[in-house]
Amino acid sequence: MNDLNREIYLVQNPAIGAVILWRFVCGYYENDGKCRQVPFPLLFLVLPIIFRQDLREVIQGTYISSGLQKVSEKLFKNNKADLFCSIHYAADQYKATTLSAISIATKANLIGISIKDATVLPLHSKVATMQSSSESLLKQAAKLGTWCSQLTLYEISVLLKVRF
């Protein structure tokens, strides 16, 4: 493993991915008080979005009340639509990392998966106070989860230019 790959792995590894997925699930689940569970396929979009600094910065710069539609508008307005168009390809590249992160999150009792209807729910919702570079990742993941909870899978696929 060369130095660049090692650096990438230190930041984009399944353990961090597990916590990011958990915060996404918490944001989705807790949004409107209806405690809706996350459709399992949606988890495969989280890491390719949150691990991309340019997408994360757009998410960070968008009010939570604005929603995912506003993020899409910002990217198309600033001629950065290719960022969204690359999510589907990136999701395929991150598939193994996402599966490992899901495994870690379930073994750590952060999330539970319903085999009956292929949905995911958080088993814990409290976040310990952190002062680290990962804190921003977790905040943006929860925000993304909140936005996705307001949309159907079809609407998400249209906005993000992905297929489930």
Index terms:
164 residues; mainly alpha; 62% helix; 3-stranded antiparallel sheet
Topology:
Blueprint: H1 3-11, H2 14-30, E1 38-39, H3 43-50, H4 53-60, H5 68-77, H6 81-85, H7 87-93, H8 95-107, E2 111-114, E3 119-122, H9 134-149, H10 153-160
Antiparallel strand pairs: 1-3, 2-3
Helix pairs in contact: 2-3, 2-8, 2-9, 3-7
Q: How would you describe what is shown here?
A:
The chain is mostly helical and 164 residues long. Helix content is 62%, strand content 6%. The protein contains 10 helices and 3 strands. It has helices at 3-11, 14-30, 43-50, 53-60, 68-77, 81-85, 87-93, 95-107, 134-149, 153-160, and strands at 38-39, 111-114, 119-122. It has a 3-stranded antiparallel β-sheet with strand order 1-3-2. The longest helix is centred in the first third of the chain and has 17 residues, at 14-30. It is globular. The N and C termini lie far apart (32 Å). The mean pLDDT is 86.
User: Could you give the order of strands across the largest sheet?
Assistant: 1-3-2
Note the run of SSEs as H and E: HHEHHHHHHEEHH
Helicity, in percent?
55-70%
Count of separate DSSP helical elements: 10
Count the strands? Answer: 3
Strand content: 5-15%
**Which descriptor suits the 3D outline?**
globular
**Kindly state the mean pLDDT as a whole number?**
86
Please outline the major beta sheet. 3 strands, antiparallel
